[in-house]
């Protein structure tokens, strides 16, 4: 099954069962596909709330994930915010290699590759981000991976909008 067909199938699954648990499963499945396809240790959806980035959905290669659902950080200290506001590129081969250049804290010195895109609702409102990272540098990340992330972010936005009872049709068109 092609990448876009897998994402469309996951998004469609959210309509089959009532309640947030089905949407949670759908987002989890989406994140697992992204993590596997792009070959990263962790992929997550983070929500921006009151100056913080809160991890809402996490798919990790290992059970001992570096991050967990519910953890949060001050948004100004995150790579995610820097990507959304254009201060950092969407794709970084080695965060450790550019940490000082972008004024990141020493805690980011353990990160290898990072890729991230905004998650926006159909009305343009910002939910947060879809990001992924590895603990080792990766020079294979490129435009194709960024497009995959954007497609997945659109699917996630649709699922999140559905959970909130918002209009999902304009975002659905972005999947086609």
TrEMBL record:
Residues 22-170 form the GAF domain. InterPro entries: GAF (IPR003018), GAF-like_dom_sf (IPR029016). It holds the Pfam family GAF_2. This is GAF domain-containing protein. The lineage of its organism: Bacteria, Pseudomonadati, Pseudomonadota, Betaproteobacteria, Burkholderiales.
